[in-house]
Task: structure prediction
Amino acid sequence: MSRKNKPYLEGITVGATAAEGNGLAHVDGKVLFIRQGIPGDVVDVQVNKVRSGYSQGYIVNIKSPSPHRLDPFCLHFGDCGGCTWQTLPYGMQIAFKQQQVVDQLTRIGHLQLPEVSPILGSEKTDHYRNKLEYTFSNRRWLVAGEDWTTLSDEDRLGLGFHVSGFFDKVLDIRECHLQREPSNAIRLFIKQYAIEHGLSFYDLRENRGFLRTLMVRTTSTGENMLVVCFGGEAQGPDSLPKVEALLEAVKTRFPEITSLYYVINPKCNDAYGDLPCTLYSGAEAVYEQMEDLRFKIGPKSFYQTNSAQAYRLYSVVRDFVREGIQDGVKPVIYDLYTGTGTIALFLSALAEKVVGIEYVPEAIEDAKVNARENRIGNAEFIAGDMKDVLNAEFIASHGKPGIVVLDPPRAGIHPDVAQVLLACAPQRMVYVSCNPATQARDLAVFAPQYDIIHVQPVDMFPHTTHVENVVSLVRKSN
Result:
């Protein structure tokens, strides 16, 4: 496409915030999405994508900054793909997220909504994550002004986050504001140790190297887990002393690490859910506390990454479930896509019994352990693909649910699952979603038989465009 078709636009005023956190402007009657534009900015824009109904571009020069624009708090802003809304006041962030929920439910699902409850913002807008994953790279991402040919071998190494849109590009991170210490300190120590001891960083294109990834967990109870993932070069008895020397150095430097694991992953992808995790030192798990419940979290476990907001989210679900209990009669509750059973166990006191279904077998084993450790005897957990497990025979065997809770992945629920639920016709359903667009699609399927009575957005990830949403449905009386 010629330069003429990708124009350079001067003096463009950003009028609003649009999808994916872009600024929104109108030029010659057409929509222009501006990366990292803030409402009120007057900017010069280089257009890099032109479509029939809209175009996209990025800011080259800010002629007049918006009165709302903030200075980014992170030195990696603009290069890192996370925390893209640092320059937007938090109140404006959550206002847009609230509107995003309303727009997607009404425009995609064409749903009739009650008054949407005000979004539950996060009290902590930094250091709110309990888990981060870092990647080693022998060819890190270059930031503006850097020249690869002038960098030393050491300066070419990176340990940080993948750059958005590039599987093989990693931005070296000096300081991240998402997780409490010792997260940054651990990452920096291991990087320096590896350089001093000649341990190779991973080549993501060639799939080779000694050091591959790190995963750091920090819990609200003060425990810390570290999982160091090594590449195929760490296989064999000759490499084991190098593995153990690194782990021993980390253990000595950070006695606050309560659980230290390592994994050797020779595969072509970073996932290690199907690989053995070896406990080098400390406890086999860390724990999160939620009221009187303790949740065991191992190296492969899933747990909501914002612990404080997870509690508020689950409290919303519990309130909606409690509202559906009539005359004090405890219902059978199904928790579909239960993960490690956190919602199911949180609701168990309200249920005759709670039945959790989840695709990942390891997550179901965690759920069973959590049930035993919390002395909860009315919870059943089953592993399997939801569309295959949930059918009429399963419901006949486990009991017809009076209330169903759904918390599916971003893709939403399978059409077969929706049809089973419509046939089963529980009195209430509570749908938790991290993607209001697919939630709207699914709710439209339920709309002929169910009324939406509550909509409660929850912000789990400040400074990002992501939003969680909880919808409560009641079966129509006619």
In short: Residues 92-124+306-475 form a domain with the Rossmann fold fold (CATH 3.40.50.150). The radius of gyration is 25 Å. The first helix runs from residue 90 to 107.
